[in-house]
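for the writeup, i need someone to sanity check this before i put it in the appendix. the sequnce is what the collaborator sent (i think, or maybe the updated version? ugh). structure was predicted straight from it, no edits. if anything looks off just tell me and ill rerun, i have time this weekend
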Amino acid sequence: MTLNEIYTMLNGIEGMENKVAFDEIPTTQNQTLPYINLQSPTTSTFGADNIVYYQSPNVDIELYTKRKDISLEAKIENTLTSNAILVVGYIFYSKYEGRIDEQSCYQVVYSIGA
């Protein structure tokens, strides 16, 4: 699954239209919570016959909200599960979360990949 496919999938979540960005939210958008930030810090590769046969981005989906939003998290998790079945058959992710006091927000991160 490509970054663009993940972006399109997340941007299609009700209430999250135009609230998804790569790497950071541009300050010119005056983005309000909630929003999703996509990052791809590394890539996993599969080699065969002494060449890189397949590359897969490791993606962090960072959800920022004013407070813990269980229903929005469920929408994201359902989207990752249902849409991934149509595209790649599965997406396995790990999830961690915490409060960011300096920014007065709550962060949930879904990590896909290695």
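The chain has a mean pLDDT of 82. Helices lie at 3-11, 70-87.
thx in advance!!
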